[in-house]
Write a structure and sequence with these properties.
Layout: H1 16-48, H2 52-80, H3 85-109, H4 118-122, H5 126-150
Helix pairs in contact: 1-2, 2-5, 3-5
Protein name: DUF1311 domain-containing protein
InterPro entries: LprI-like_N
Signal peptide: 1-38
Length: 167
Amino acid sequence: MIYPLPQSRREVSMHPTARSILTAAFAAFALTAAPALAQDASDACWDKAVTQRDLTDCAARDMDAAEIQMNTLYAIVLDKFRGDPETLGKIRAAQQAWLAFREAHVAAVYPKADTPDAQYEYGSSLSMCMASVAANLTGPRIAQLRDWADGIPEGDVCAGSRGSTAN
């Protein structure tokens, strides 16, 4: 049986601190469980891959999973520093620069990828290889964002805005 939705919904307001706590709790769960689940799915994909198309699909899935994890952490970091416009602006600038770096790096590794001769030059594995290079670059960025999201243990004199006492 399908239950009808109520005609009107009341929006439930939540105190900003409670919202931040719930967001952090959800993110902590998602970021601890999601990588393990994603790794299992990735391993299963690669284990079953037979054709180049299968391999390319697995690489694309790995890249998508890394991108989701990075974007989730980035959103947490933005939320954490929402009260500090100066730091927030610098984090945004750093992320934009990093994304440009990743794109430029992949383009430098495969400089002829956008040409008609790309398949001749690099073969049918080009898409898989480009996704793998991008995903491999994204892993360290995830670790960098995690430092901001989780904080660096007290005592690291170089922690800066990543320190556990930030916001």
